[in-house]
Fold this protein.
Amino acid sequence: MIYLDNAATTRPCDEAVNAAVNTARECFGNVSSLHKMGIEAEKLLNGAKNTILKKLGLQGELYFTSGATESNNTVLKGVCDAYKRSGKTIVTTAMEHPSVARVCDYLENNGFNVIRLSPKDAFYNFEEYIAEHITPDTILVSCMAVNNETGYKVDTKKLYALVKRKNKNCMLHVDGVQGFCKTALYGDYISLSAHKVHGLKGVGALYVAKGCRFTPQLLGGGQQKNLRSGTEPIEAIAAFEAAVKAYPTDLTHYVELNKLLRSRLAEMDDVYINSPDLSYGVPNILSFSVLGVRSEIMLHYLEEKQIYVSSGSACSKGKISSVPDSFGIDGKRADSTIRVSFSMSNTLDDINVLADEIKSGIKRFRR
Ligand code: PLP
């Protein structure tokens, strides 16, 4: 089996699985309990928080959530509610994940102005282009650090500086799901997900810089300083921490895999790379279009060979996405997109096998 769909989810690493099992066996207390078992669980939670903050290289608060979908919903709704008296405008992008995009639609239907910007309109200076659209009425900018479909990368530190220069009261939210452990992240609020970095599904985090507010979206027992109620899933949090600790820091292997795949694809006629070159994109995601072979046809052909890739989420379970268009990828090229996303355990051999199978897929299906 060759698994090349790591932007969708990753295989939980042994360190994460062991941490979850050991915590379930030895440290399963409720963080809110006043006795020793609760205190031990709280210690573990605080340790995990520190590990993740250290990996981010940021100081501030970290709240555990059920995943980045919840983190994104919480920030967008919670920040708009907390700062609604200061303004009504949100600046975001047309390349966002649905867990940002659909919440922006919701906020738009509830009286906020939403400006959606496309990378295709300012590919090489998107940060400046976003800042140009900020007005005194803008309370929030929400922009992902790395696009999940193409690997396109935004310099969030630069964006942060530009946002604050334009309007010091405007908050920056960064969906950091695909960037975490791969590139530097910066913002007032940053969403993270464990299962994209070899942790378990069902847990994520929301980083909040000092002094930045949001209205909680889950009310109940008042856990996590009243900002995210619900018993903390300590086993999954322990696994998240272990995965972050185990994530390699030298990522040059991604570059080797990426370069090999690009060179193998260059041997094939009418195969176009959709991802930016490596100075504007992360090396672990490579999107390309095999003209004349629809994405699903190629995906299932590769699946028969036990190679797992994605159709580039040009559609998610049948729903058309606006993301390809935001990169200027349209028509036949959008229909034939394949997204390959690596983990550090993929080998150069995996890439050669993939490329050979794409070649035979083209021979069989291209029309
Ligand atoms: N944001 C981005 C960029 C993603 O790629 C994903 C998952 O695909 C999410 C958010 C949602 O993350 P989760 O699965 O943790 O809800």
